[in-house]
Amino acid sequence: QVQLVESGGGLVQPGGSLRLSCAASGIGFSVYAMNWYRQAPGKQRELVAAITSGGSTNYADSVKGRFTISRDNAKNTGYLQMNTLKPDDTAVYYCNVRWGQYEYWGQGTQVTVSS
Prior knowledge:
By secondary structure, the protein is an all-beta fold. It has strands spanning about 5, 10, 20-25, 35-40, 45-50, 55-60, 65-70, 75-80, 90-100, 100-105, 110-115. The strands form 2 sheets. Strands 2, 4, 5, 6, 9, 10 and 11 form a 7-stranded mixed sheet that branches.
């Protein structure tokens, strides 16, 4: 059974930091591309950051320079380090992995940026 379990969300003040984790089980994590999406209330889900199986990364313009995506294949875990958080970053963050026709989603973790 495939599982993606996100953790690390919470409430943080503007300018603060959080690190999200995505622990994968039931798949050969190392061959999958991994993505972080987010969905704010009333908005469409958007791609925030992506990392290929080879480690190449890509970011949405809105988070470039503030967020860093990474992965530890030995731990079957991906990460999203979020710095200098803004209220506009408030959303549910979802981990996604993709390999060919195979695609899986985590359950999401809430990130709220507010003073």
